[in-house]
Specification:
Bound molecules: NADP nicotinamide-adenine-dinucleotide phosphate
Distance between the termini: 25 Å
Order of helices and strands: EHEEHEHEEEHHEHEHEHEHEHEHHEHE
Strand content: 15-25%
Number of strands: 15
Shape: globular
Structural class: alpha/beta
Radius of gyration: 21 Å
Number of helices: 13
Helix content: 25-40%
Length: 343
């Protein structure tokens, strides 16, 4: 391992215990000095510049995410920084000195710390002109949006329903869809979110609490022949959307913001209208995407980020020591943008 004057301890946000109650989980977070873990085979050490807070981090500290870690854990799945040391594997060593967007491993410490040890394959070398707050959010949502848009492109469909359309993923999919001339039906849950989208000249915007939501969605879906939907909410909404879609409609569930099991799907729609529900998970997509294809995708992504076509709105920046204040602000208005944590 190549290593020059590295500290042996780091400041990190620690989660001592999972708690389904998000407030209790959040106020339980502590900032402590802990030992920097040893670099394992094919791994690198990243000196973190910034990390973000996503819905997956919120679900993680509650203990309701698909990944659970040994406690105390360091939360945070993505961020960016400089690679300062590496295992003596050639691909890992090549990253030394490089600025990277990085993803935490599913069994190691997370990104809300001064340093991150992660697999070299969890790092994307980033162009100098991508700002830190964008690089810190480059892995999870932008790649998910590109992967979901690839599903639409391969299906040949020209219309799409998005639930939780005011989310960052929703924004990014809208931006990508414009280039492909794909019509979007945007489902949001609040009046101000609908207003914002209408001010952005979105033709189809519908609020999930509207009295006549089911019928309105059904008529919009019929008018646009929307046979594909992306749902990040789950619960009864998944059923409502699928039931409103025309025959052969498919819904991809990629988030569980409602915290509720999927429900309300008409059995008859599945049997007689050939409708399908399936899931998308970025981690599986990363595992199944070949290295050369991944390189092309991330190069294209950086071009989109440089042109501003893919951009993550950021509502605030906090020091790790203010992690609770930062999370409170994010949870108070997730649509307003991401929170960036800096060491
Ligand atoms: N499967 C994967 O691999 C993958 C990858 C990336 C992202 N995701 C998922 O994508 C979703 C969006 O992530 P993001 O980072 O783009 O989110 P975000 O912009 O940071 O914020 C969440 C958005 O969802 C809305 N929302 C929250 N709870 C909701 C509910 N119960 N019903 C309807 N809307 C709700 C929020 O609206 P308010 O402002 O009204 O709260 C906000 O607009 C999340 O579920 C995330 O886990 C999944």
């Amino acid at each position: 391992m190549k290593q020059t004057e590295l500290p042996i301890t780091m400041k990190a946000v620690l989660l001592p215990a999972y708690n389904q109650n998000v407030i209790r989980a959040m106020v339980g977070l502590k900032v402590n000095d802990i030992a920097i873990p040893a670099i394992q085979r094919k791994q690198v050490l990243v000196k973190m510049e910034a990390a973000t807070c996503n819905p997956s981090d919120v679900a993680f500290i509650r203990g309701v995410y698909g990944i659970k870690k040994n406690l105390p854990a360091i939360p945070g799945f993505e961020g960016c920084g400089i690679v300062v040391a590496a295992d003596n594997h050639p691909a890992a060593e090549m990253l030394i000195g490089k600025r990277v967007s990085c993803l935490a491993t599913s069994d190691g410490y997370g990104t809300w710390a001064e340093y991150l040890v992660t697999d070299y394959s969890n790092c994307i070398e980033i162009n100098k002109n991508i700002p830190t707050n964008q690089a810190a959010c480059m892995f999870v949502n932008p790649l998910t949006s590109l992967a979901l848009m690839d599903i639409v492109k391969k299906s040949g469909r020209k219309s799409l329903i998005i639930n939780a359309a005011a989310s960052k993923v929703g924004q990014m999919i809208r931006s990508l869809a414009k280039k492909e001339d794909i019509t979007i039906i945007n489902i949001v849950r609040r009046e101000e979110q609908a207003e914002k989208l209408m001010n952005e000249h979105e033709k189809y915007v519908i609020i999930s609490t509207d009295e006549d939501f089911d019928n309105k969605l059904k008529s919009m879906a019929a008018e646009t022949n929307a046979l594909m939907a992306f749902d990040a909410v789950g619960g009864e909404m998944t059923g409502k959307i699928l039931n409103a879609m025309p025959e052969s409609g498919k819904i991809v569930v990629y988030g569980g913001l409602s915290g509720e099991p999927i429900g309300g799907i008409s059995t008859l729609e599945i049997i007689y209208k050939k409708k399908i529900v399936y899931g998308f998970n970025l981690m599986d997509w990363l595992k199944t995407t070949e290295t050369s294809a991944f390189k092309h995708i991330t190069d294209d992504l950086q071009t989109l980020m440089e042109s501003g076509e893919i951009k993550t709105e950021v509502q605030g920046q906090f020091n790790f020591t203010d992690v609770i204040a930062g999370m409170k602000q994010y949870l108070g208005n997730m649509s307003a943008g991401k929170i960036i944590f800096c060491p």
